[in-house]
Every structure is written in structure tokens, then in C-alpha cells.
């Protein structure tokens, strides 16, 4: 499983735990809904800046975000 897919799975899981739609997460992060969908499916190589925006929108630290990724 690629790193992009693993990251996308974590973002999707955290978003669902918080009962957020892709649109709601995108709005909170200042990103486009289709971009969030592509991240969740592992189709996009996300920049550090956007990873930071997503972590803030999900109210989790970067270490927590990365620690949830499967090996």
C-alpha cells in the first residue's frame, strides 16, 4: 500500500469519526471538496502545507495524524 493511500485512509477515518462530510472538511481546511476526495483515495501527493491545513481542520496534531498510519 502506498504512502498516499495510507495517508488518505487516515484522513477519511478521522473525518468520519468527527462526522464531517468531505465538503465540511474541505471548508474547514480551506481546500476544495474534490481535492479532499482525491486525497482520501490516495490519488494526490499532498504538500506539507495542505497536510498541516487538514490536521488543523481535524483538530489533531501532525504526530497524531502520522501515528495513525498503518505500517
Automatic annotation (TrEMBL):
Q: Which GO terms describe its cellular component?
A: cytosol
Q: Which domain of life is it from?
A: Bacteria
Q: Per its UniProt record, what InterPro entries does this chain match?
A: Cro/C1-type_HTH (IPR001387), Lambda_DNA-bd_dom_sf (IPR010982), TransReg_Diox_bact_type (IPR050807)
In terms of Pfam families, this protein maps to: HTH_3 (PF01381)
Where is each HTH cro/C1-type domain found?
11-65
Keywords for the protein's UniProt record, in alphabetical order: DNA-binding, Transcription, Transcription regulation
Recall the GO molecular function terms of this protein's record: DNA binding; DNA-binding transcription factor activity
- Name the record gives this protein: Helix-turn-helix domain-containing protein
Q: What species is given as this protein's source?
A: Rudanella paleaurantiibacter
Amino acid at each position: 500500500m502506498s504512502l498516499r493511500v495510507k495517508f488518505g485512509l487516515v484522513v477519511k477515518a478521522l473525518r468520519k469519526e468527527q462526522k464531517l462530510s468531505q465538503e465540511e472538511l474541505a471548508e474547514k481546511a480551506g481546500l476544495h471538496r474534490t481535492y479532499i476526495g482525491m486525497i482520501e483515495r490516495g490519488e494526490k501527493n499532498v504538500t506539507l502545507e495542505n497536510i498541516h491545513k487538514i490536521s488543523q481542520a481535524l483538530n489533531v496534531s501532525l504526530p497524531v495524524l502520522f501515528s495513525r498510519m498503518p505500517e
